[in-house]
Amino acid sequence: MAPLAFAPIVAYHACMADLPVSHYLPTSEAAALAGITPGRLRQLCQAGEVAGAIKLGSAWLIPRQSAESLAAEPSSTGRPRISCRS
Fold first, then answer.
1. Among 20, 10, 28, 8, which residue's Cα sits nearest to residue 65?
2. pLDDT digit string (tens) for the chain, length 86 residues
3. 7, 38, 66, 72: which has the fewest Cβ within 10 Å?
4. Strand locations in 1-86 (E)
5. Residue 26: which of 16, 12, 45 has the closest Cα?
């Protein structure tokens, strides 16, 4: 795996949170691990539903453990159907 492009910034935030830099993933990698799209992951981060997510400028960094827990959650896909029959 290639090193993160913003590793120095992550290292600063990791020191503040007492978490190793290797525990953070960029949005694209975390989304692939969680089985969702990067856009949906950004929505979840903005809503505060991803524990430990850090926003740096316009980028989100996701703790690996949070991405794995998203993958373990069951998901419903699509919009619920509304029956028009009486």
1. 20
2. 555 555 555 555 554 555 566 789 999 999 999 989 999 999 999 999 999 999 988 999 999 999 999 888 776 666 665 666 65
3. 72
4. 24-26, 54-56, 59-63
5. 45
CA distance 13 to 54: 8
- Whether the CB-CB separation of 71 and 35 falls below 8 Å is answered with yes
Amino acid at 71: A
Q: Residue 60 — left, alpha, or beta (φ > 0 → left; ψ -120 to 50 → alpha)?
A: beta
Domain ranges (residues) in the chain: 7-71
Q: Residue 83 is encoded by which pair of tokens? A: 């029956």
Name the amino acid, one letter, at 66: S
- pTM of the model as a whole: 0.65
